[in-house]
Amino acid sequence: MDASLQTSPPQASSPWFGHPRGLVVLFLTEMWEKFSFYGMKALLIYYMIRHLQFPQADASLIYGAYTGGVYLTPIFGGVIADRWLGRRRAILIGGSLMALGHFTLAFESAFFAALALIALGNGLFLPNLPSQVGDLYAEDDPRRGGSYNVYYVGVNLGALLAPLVCGTLGEVYGWHVGFGAAGVGMCLGLAIYALGARHLPPDRAPAPPAGTPAAAPSGARRFVPLLLVGLAVVVFRSGYEQSGNTLAVWAEAGVDRALGSITVPVTWMQSLNPLFVFLFTPFVIAGWRRAAERGREPAPLTKMALGAAGVALSYLMLALVAATHGSAPVSMAWVGAFFVIYTLAELYILPVGLGLFARLAPRGMGATVIAAWFLASFGGNLLSGVVGRHLQGLGPAGFFVLLGAITGAAALALFALRPLLRRV
Question: Which family does the UniProt entry place this protein in (predicted)?
Answer without folding.
Answer: Belongs to the major facilitator superfamily. Proton-dependent oligopeptide transporter (POT/PTR) (TC 2.A.17) family.
